[in-house]
Amino acid sequence: MAWRSSASTNAGLIENLWRNKLITDPRVKEAFLKVDRAHYAPTSPYDDSPKPIGHRATISAPHMHALAVENLLPFILPTTSRSAPRVLDIGSGSGYLTHVLAELVGSEGGLVVGLEHIPELRDLGARNMAKSEEGRRFLETGRARFRLGDGRRGWTEPGEGEGDDGWDAIHVGASAVEVHPELLAQLRSPGRMFIPVDDEDGHDEGQHIWCVDKDEAGKVTRRKLFGVRYVPLTDAPVG
Ligand code: SAH
């Protein structure tokens, strides 16, 4: 899949993702078109492939970002019952996906927190986002925020109102050994988590994306979506 959507411009890349049905919702397409991947990927930004960004991290391939946003979409968009969606992007790395998510949560109190455990990468995400006027506005208004912490424990970000906590959508950008209970506890009812989890059975280092849903009554269901290869969620390097 890596070569199929590559292009020489941002618009070309997004058009190819659309043509290849990796992006199927016009609102998702519009959001991706607003974010120039060149602000986030250090080399060949319009290739449909991951790129190293330092500190053993990579910016994921565009088709993976597309699949993640498409999957989480019902929990990211503002609705009448959820005017201010709260989204947590764990392992925000380059900050690219954090920016795309911020395009979708809306201006009525929608919030995206990019969480990193490496200070330099937390700063990199904010620095990359500040390269565009819209990105700077997201940072200034607090619609997008970059925080430092261990993603396996989730994150608590106080909101404006009473009971304004938890997350409508959690994206995990590095592979987990399990669906961490603290993340599940922070998921709202209803809410959805998109998380790569190491396979339990295989001898090789397989991983699959799991879609974990919590319904209105708090009932949790898990669906295994497709095989992937992500860098792992780890302890922060010392020093
Ligand atoms: N979504 C990012 C992916 C970056 S790669 C992007 O596309 O740019 C995965 C990221 O997870 C790395 O930046 C790494 O530093 C971060 N990470 C790894 N373990 C973590 C942990 N325990 N807590 C928070 N972030 C973690």
Chain-wise SSE layout:
Elements: H1 10-19, H2 26-34, E1 51-54, E2 57-59, H3 62-72, E3 86-90, H4 96-104, E4 111-116, H5 119-129, H6 133-141, E5 144-148, E6 167-172, H7 181-186, E7 187-198, E8 207-214, E9 220-228
Parallel strand pairs: 3-4, 3-6, 4-5, 6-7
Antiparallel strand pairs: 1-2, 7-8, 8-9
The structure holds S-adenosyl-L-homocysteine (SAH).
Pfam families: PCMT
Organism: Podospora appendiculata
GO molecular function: protein-L-isoaspartate (D-aspartate) O-methyltransferase activity
List keywords for this structure.
single chain; 239 residues; alpha/beta; Rossmann fold; 7-stranded mixed sheet; two-stranded antiparallel sheet; 9 strands; binds S-adenosyl-L-homocysteine
Question: Quick recap of the structure?
Answer:
The protein is α/β, with parallel strands linked by helices. 27% of the residues lie in helices and 24% in strands. The site of S-adenosyl-L-homocysteine (SAH) has 25 residues, from strand 2, helix 4 and strand 4.
How far apart, in Å, are the first and last alpha carbons?
A: 38 Å
Averaging pLDDT over every residue, what do you get? 94
Number of domains: 1
Predict the CATH topology. Answer: Rossmann fold
Pfam families: PCMT
Organism: Podospora appendiculata
GO biological process, one term: methylation
Keywords: Cytoplasm, Methyltransferase, S-adenosyl-L-methionine, Transferase
Describe this structure as you would to a colleague:
This protein is α/β, with parallel strands linked by helices. It has one domain (52-155, 163-228): 3-Layer(aba) Sandwich (Rossmann fold). Helices cover 27% and strands 24% of the residues. It contains seven helices and nine strands; from the N terminus they run H-H-E-E-H-E-H-E-H-H-E-E-H-E-E-E. Strands 5-4-3-6-7-8-9 form a seven-stranded mixed sheet. Helix 2 (26-34) packs across helix 4. It is globular. The mean pLDDT is 94. It binds S-adenosyl-L-homocysteine (SAH). One of its GO terms (cellular component) is cytoplasm. It is an enzyme of class 2 (transferase).
